């Protein structure tokens, strides 16, 4: 299952409850300067859904990643999938 989330240009905070094999995607956002990403469990992060199985970065559980200006991911879709846990939470702040 693939879930796409709030792609508006309004600053927002989103919290996603994900389960095994579910993929979540959001855009870096051209109008945003800062991204803050927090994951509760080991989570794969990639720039396309297909790369979640081969070319990804693993964020360890309870990790917070802050991407400060300039936001070089502004026009990019960012994909997430749990690495080994059966349930987890992904939180994203776009401002």
Describe the structure in your own words.
The chain has 95 residues and is an all-beta fold. Helices cover 0% and strands 49% of the residues. It is built from no helices and 9 strands. Strands 1-3-8-5-6 form a 5-stranded mixed beta sheet, with no helix packed on it. A 4-stranded antiparallel beta sheet has the order 2-9-4-7, with no helix packed on it. The chain is globular. The mean pLDDT is 85.
Task: Record the SSE blueprint.
Layout: E1 2-4, E2 12-19, E3 23-27, E4 35-39, E5 43-46, E6 57-59, E7 63-67, E8 77-82, E9 87-94
Parallel strand pairs: 1-3
Antiparallel strand pairs: 2-9, 3-8, 4-7, 4-9, 5-6, 5-8
List keywords for this structure.
mainly beta; 95 residues; four-stranded antiparallel sheet; five-stranded mixed sheet
- The CA-CA distance between the termini, in Å, is 27 Å
Specify the number of helices. Answer: 0
Shape: globular
Helix proportion of residues, in percent?
under 10%
Would you count the extended β strands for me? 9
Q: Characterize the biggest β-sheet.
A: 5 strands, mixed
What is the residue-mean pLDDT, rounded to a whole number?
85
Unreliable stretches (pLDDT < 50, length at least 5) are: none
Gyration radius, rounded: 12 Å
Strand content: over 45%
Structural class: mainly beta
Biggest sheet strand line-up: 1-3-8-5-6
Succession of helices and strands: EEEEEEEEE
């Amino acid at each position: 299952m693939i879930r796409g989330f709030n792609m508006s240009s309004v600053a927002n905070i989103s919290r996603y409850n994900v389960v095994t094999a579910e993929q979540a995607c959001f855009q870096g956002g051209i109008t945003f300067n800062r991204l803050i990403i927090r994951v509760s469990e080991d989570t794969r992060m990639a720039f396309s859904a297909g790369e979640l199985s081969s070319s990804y970065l693993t964020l360890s559980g309870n990790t917070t990643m802050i991407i400060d200006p300039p936001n070089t991911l502004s026009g990019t879709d960012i994909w997430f999938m749990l690495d080994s846990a059966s349930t987890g939470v992904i939180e994203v702040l776009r401002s």
